[in-house]
Amino acid sequence: MIVLDIETTGEIPWEHSILSIGAIEFSNPSNQFYNECRIREGAKIDPEALNINGFSRKEIENQDKKSLKDALTEFIEWTEKIDDTTIAGLNHYMDVYFLEFSLNFYGMKSPFKYRLVDLHTIAYVNHLNRGLELPLESRGSALKSNIIYKYCGMPVEEFPHNALTGAKMEAEAFSRFIYGKNLLTEYKEFEIPDYLKK
Amino acid sequence: MIVLDAEMSGLDPKIHSILSIGAVDFSKPERQFYMEAKLRNNAQIDPEAMEVNGFTTKEVKDKNKPTEKEMILKLCKWMDDTKDRTIGGHNVQNDIKFLKYAIALYQIDYKINSRAVDTYALTYESYLKRKLKFPMKDNIADLKSDVVFKYCGLKQEPHPHNALTGAKMEAEAFSRLIYGKNLLKDFKNFKIPRYLIQ
Known about the structure:
The complex is a heterodimer of chains A (198) and B (198).
Chain A lengths: L1 E7 L9 E8 L6 E5 L10 H7 L3 H4 L7 H12 L7 E3 L3 H13 L10 E3 H11 L6 E2 L2 E2 L3 H7 L11 H17 L19
Parallel strand pairs in A: 1-4, 4-5
Antiparallel strand pairs in A: 1-2, 2-3, 6-7
Chain B lengths: L1 E7 L9 E8 L6 E5 L10 H7 L3 H4 L7 H12 L7 E3 L3 H13 L11 E2 H11 L6 E2 L2 E2 L3 H7 L11 H17 L19
Parallel strand pairs in B: 1-4, 4-5
Antiparallel strand pairs in B: 1-2, 2-3, 6-7
Helix pairs in contact in B: 5-7
């Protein structure tokens, strides 16, 4: 399982561009991937997205940065050495959509499928299982990333967001939910709540 | 949680349309929804999709059937009676993608939350916890609906697919994966595997 997080210039794969990719092999968490790239030619920029990921226009237009095509090629090469490339993350359907669109854009075939292991599902079901009241927003689940991290005894995600930090935090949360165990040394000092310990 | 299944005329919401929707209110499983609709004007038909859902071209072009918009409006009204409208299902993001597209197309004032609950992720988690080997296809865990149903002690989904039967089977699978308990009397005779009983 590959825990994936990406940062983009907006929310629409065919209008906006990937800016960074962070990933961790869950069964071998020292195997990590991080790549940044410049904006795809012709892609739009939503200022709100840059506010979230902290990249400046100057940074993402810097021609010395690698191209999105090169960043994607390196990512695919990294995944090729992994046996189980099922993609995991948090509400990461759009991340996979971005990857698929971007790979197709450069004439590459996406090896990924929409068979996704979603951290939200695991967190939601853990709440149901414990008979807890679910936080709701617009009459749907309000289990956002920082609520899930807090539930797992972890700190809030740093702002602005970084794709590798995001992937690490998601991987750590998966480990706490599934095994009740710490995965990464970065989060060792954050105690695992009793209700997650097996 | 609303456990939902939909049958479509193809895979792309922009050119295909929703032909039927089935749903079960997970907290009150006697509350169920089923409706069929005629093909959206100008929408295309993918023969492979029709083979899966069993509708004939004559049936989906039947002028006496409600429109896709009428079906979506009825679904929204039905969902309004539920406190938590988080959508659940199997690879459910595809159904959500179609629903969101239709809601935007018909300018219906209704918010479908992308934070969903998926039997794929839950089954994957259960396999990891039990240290089972995943069935793999193209390096991705191949946990199709029938694999999930079998894992939960259920029979294969009848062919062709029916959206309400799909929703019921998914709701039953959720109940078995989350609580280790039977939910619907339709599946009472199917023994719950020991490894799911808590």
